[in-house]
Design brief:
Order of helices and strands of chain B: EEEEEEEEEE
Strand order of the largest sheet of chain B: 2-10-9-4-5-6
Structural class of chain A: mainly beta
Number of strands of chain B: 10
Shape of chain B: globular
Largest sheet of chain A: 6 strands, mixed
Oligomer: heterodimer
Strand content of chain A: 35-45%
Distance between the termini of chain A: 29 Å
Structural class of chain B: mainly beta
Shape of chain A: globular
Radius of gyration of chain A: 13 Å
Number of helices of chain B: 0
Largest sheet of chain B: 6 strands, mixed
Strand content of chain B: over 45%
Number of strands of chain A: 9
Number of helices of chain A: 0
Helix content of chain B: under 10%
């Protein structure tokens, strides 16, 4: 069981908006630690697409955004494209574990 | 450009040992915590271990405590994961990852099987 909870799958039509939630606890997201989001395609390593308080690394389109509230974080993708179909993971730091925690991952399907 | 390159993976029998290495470049290595993260086949991501900038603090996920040791050599810009008493369930791709802005390497596959 992952320390952060994500829906196993989400889907959306081309051009639509989807939200992937990530629920943590008072020892990680709720404690104010940064949340990061990763995108992973089959057979490749995870690549961070959002880090800290909604920062996007260069090359990531502004269709991707992130927010945080209380013990939860969210990744929002607007104007869905076929190339967005991938697995998405959230990650934070946990003070009880003194280490990183991850969500179980969400498979995004673009219809 | 930040680069992390892992090496040392391979096939090992249960109970065996393996040492993973990660060579870092493109940033001031001794300014950052370094981490190992693994991903078992068709599974999610799992944090394994972290080491502080000066190597004075190390932390581990419970399942590897007493079996794995993380260390770093700031002169060589490298971080290591010494794995012993390996189990079948340690089979995974192991990624080296930087703290702060989270850059990751491409991973190295460790297969524990008889």
């Amino acid at each position: 069981q992952s320390a952060l909870t994500q829906p196993p799958s989400v889907s959306g039509a081309l051009g639509q908006r989807v939200t992937i939630s990530c629920t943590g606890s008072s020892s990680n997201i709720g404690a104010g630690y940064d949340g990061h989001w990763y995108q992973q395609f089959p057979g490749t390593s995870p690549k961070f697409i959002m880090y800290g308080n909604g920062n996007r690394p260069s090359g990531v389109p502004d269709r991707f955004s992130a927010s945080k509230s209380g013990t939860s974080a969210s990744l929002v993708i607007t104007g869905l494209q076929a190339e967005d179909e991938a697995d998405y993971y959230c990650q934070s730091y946990d003070s009880k574990l003194s280490g990183w925690v991850f969500g179980g991952g969400t498979r995004l399907t673009v219809l | 450009e930040v680069q992390l390159v892992e090496s040392g993976g391979g096939l090992v029998q249960p109970g065996g040992s393996l040492r993973l290495s990660c060579a870092a470049s493109g940033f001031t290595f001794n300014n950052y915590w370094m981490n190992w993260v693994r991903q078992a086949p068709n599974k999610g991501l799992e944090w394994v271990a972290s080491v502080k900038q000066d190597g004075s603090e190390m932390y581990y996920v419970d399942s590897v405590k007493g079996r794995f040791t993380i260390s770093r050599d700031n002169a060589m810009n490298s971080v290591y994961l010494q794995m012993s008493r390996l189990r079948v369930e340690d089979t995974a791709v192991y990624y080296c990852a930087r703290g702060g802005t989270p850059y990751w390497g491409q991973g190295t596959l460790v297969t524990v099987s008889s």
